[in-house]
Amino acid sequence: MRRILVVDDEQIVRDLTVQVLERAGYDVLSVACPKRALELVDTEDVDLVVSDVVMPGLSGVELLDEIRERRPGLPVVLMTGGSPEPERTTRALQLGASGIVYKPFSHAELCGAVEAALGV
Amino acid sequence: MNDVARRTTDDRHLETLGRLTRGALHEIANPLLALVGSAELALAEVEPGSKLHARLDTVRATGLEIAQIVRALQAFVRKRNEPSRPLSLTEAAEEAAALVGLVNSAPDIDVAARTEANPSVYEPPGAVARALVELLLDGLATAQGGDVVELVVREEGLDGVVALAGVGDGVVALAGVGELRLPKVDA
Questions:
Q1: Is ipTM over 0.90?
Q2: How far apart are CA A53 and CA A95, in angstroms?
Q3: Does pLDDT of A84 surpass 80?
Q4: Which residues does chain B have within 8 Å of residue A19's beta carbon, measured at their own beta carbons?
Q5: Helices then strands (H, E): number in chain B?
C-alpha cells in the first residue's frame, strides 16, 4: 500500500484530506508542521507528500525545496488557495512539484493529482 | 473634488478592493473545501433516497456552485502577472464570458462568446482578460432583461478583434462601440 504524508496547518483541511486519501486506499500520515514533515521524510518510508502552500514557519514551496535536496525523487503535490501567491506557484513548478491542486478541489481532483504523481 | 482627483481616488479604491478580494478568495477556499468535502464524504455514508441524503446533496451542490465562482476568480487573479505569451483570442473570450456569466447578477441577461475566426496574439494574459471582462461588464450595464451580451472574435487584416455585440433591445447600441484589437501572430 502506498504511503502518503499530508502536511497542512489547517486541521479541518488536513483531516478531510486524510479521510479522502484513506478512502481511496492509501496509508496516510499527517502533520500540521512542515518542519515535522521534513523529519518524517527523513525517517519514514513515504511514497508521496501532499502539502499546503501557505503555512507558518516554512511554506509548502520551501518544504518542496528541502525535500528536493533530501529525496530528489519523492513526488510532492501542493494544495493552494491560489490567488495571493501566483509567484509561489510558478516557483513550485520550477522546483519540480509533481502537481498542484487549487482549493476548493473535489475528491476526484485530489485523487487524480495523487495518482498522476505516483504514476498509478 | 475635481475629476482627476476623483478618478485617482476611485483607482486607489479599486486597487484596495482588488487586494481585499485576493485575500478573501484565499480565505474562502479552506472553509469551502471543508464544506464541500465533508458533504461529499457524508453522502457516501447516508442512505441514497433519504431526506438527509437530499439535504447533504443540496449542501454539496451549492458549495460546488460557490467553488466554481471562487475558482474562476482565482484563475483571473493568477493571470495578472503572467508575462506575454501566444494566446488564442477565442479561448480568452470564452473564459471572460464564463467568468462574467458566473458573477452576472441579472439572470435574465445571457453572456456569451461567439467565434468567427480564431486569431492568436502575443500579449500578457492578465491584460487581455481584464480588457475582455471590462467589455462585457460595459455591455451588461446597458443590457435589459432577455438580452444576450456577447463577445465576437474575428480577424480584420493583420489584427485579431474581439468586439462587444449583443442581441436584444438594450444592446443594439453596443455593436461597434467597444472592441479589443491586437496584432495577430502565427499560432
A1: no
A2: 13
A3: no
A4: 41
A5: 4, 6
> pLDDT class for B71, splitting at 50, 70, 90?
confident
Whether a cis peptide bond, with omega within 30° of 0, leads into A104 is: yes
Centroid of chain to Cα A8:
8
Q: DSSP assignment of B28-64, as one string?
A: HHHHHHHHHHHHHHHHTTS-TTSHHHHHHHHHHHHHH
Residue B129: all three cell numbers together: 482578460
C-alpha cell at B24: 478573501
**What is the reported pLDDT for A77?**
95
- Hey, are the CB atoms on B77 and A23 less than 8 Å from each other? no
Backbone angles phi, psi at A102, to 5 degrees: -100, 125
Q: Could A81 and B37 be called an inter-chain contact, meaning their C-beta atoms sit closer than 8 Å? A: no
Which residue's C-alpha cell is 487581455?
B128
Residues 6+ apart with CB under 8 A from A78: A50, A51, A52, A53, A60, A61, A64, A89, A92, A97, A99, A100, A101
> How close is the nearest chain B Cα to the Cα of A7, in Å?
14
Segment A89-93 long-range contacts (CB within 8 Å, at least 24 positions apart): A89/A53, A89/B78, A91/A61, A92/A53, A92/A60, A92/A61, A92/A64
pTM check: above 0.80 = no
